[in-house]
Structures are given as C-alpha cells and as structure tokens.
Amino acid sequence: MQGYRSGILKFCGSRVETKFDVGGEEGKFCFRKLENGEYNRDEIIVTRHSNILKGVITGKKGWGLWVDTWSDGIVDWTFTEEEIMNEFHNRNIKIPESLMKDFKNRIEKKKRIRNEKYIEGLLEKKIEKDKIQKEEKEKGESIQKNSEFLGSGGMWV
Known about the structure:
The protein has 157 residues and is mainly alpha-helical. It has helices at 2-6, 27-35, 50-75, 81-90, 97-146, and strands spanning 18-25, 45-47, 149-150, 155-156. Strands 1-2 form a two-stranded parallel sheet. A two-stranded antiparallel sheet has the order 3-4.
C-alpha cells in the first residue's frame, strides 16, 4: 500500500477500477475474490473500501511487473539492487520478507539463465573454432600428400 501511495508502484500494466458502495463487501473479501478469479478482467469491483482495494491491487500487480523489470536491469548491470532498495528506503517503504525473497530469487534465476547462455555461446564458439582448425589441418595434410619436392631448387609442386 505504501508503494502505491508513494507513487513508486502506481503503474501496474492494466486498468484497475473500483467503485465505492457503503453496502458493498469489505476490501479484503473483494481482494480474495479477485485472487480466486471470481471477477472478470475489466469488471468494476464494488466495495466499501474502494481506494484501499485499488491501492492493494495496483501495488500487487505493479510489484510483479516492476520486480521483473528491475531484475532484468540488475542482471544486465544497468543498475544495482542497492539503488532500487534505496528508493524504497528513501520513501520509508518497508518491503515484506516474502516479496524480498521473490525479488532475490528472480535476480538469481535470471543471472543463472544469463550465465548458462554465455557458457553455451562460448562452447559454440569453441566447437566452431575446433571445426575450422580441424578442416585447416586436414587441408594442410592433403596438400602435403599431393605435392612433391623438385630437386635442389627447393620448389614444391
């Protein structure tokens, strides 16, 4: 919720609409229904806690979107994890341990994927280089077999 209020997680990639109604359900029940898939994608959720529910939904969706983007940037060395965490610290936002664990796990997973791709690329280059060297060696041996030395002039034919 603090992430939404501070503006750091306002964009979540989709439109979230809620409507206030005094007789509506509590926000936490509406959130559970949303998580269980009881609301359609563009359905307006009627609740007595419309602003809180909108903030929670936007924050949750935004977290997933931004964590993915931040982890890409960290893995690509565009910025550091500390820079991201400083933004939250400067805005007095405490990130729950479960979300931090998810963030760190995504970074590690993306680093592992990046490293595997790098190693695969190196192996492919090595295989190609070995293939070229083998072809050149075979070509050199073939030329040597088919040539003969012509006398003292030191010429190969």
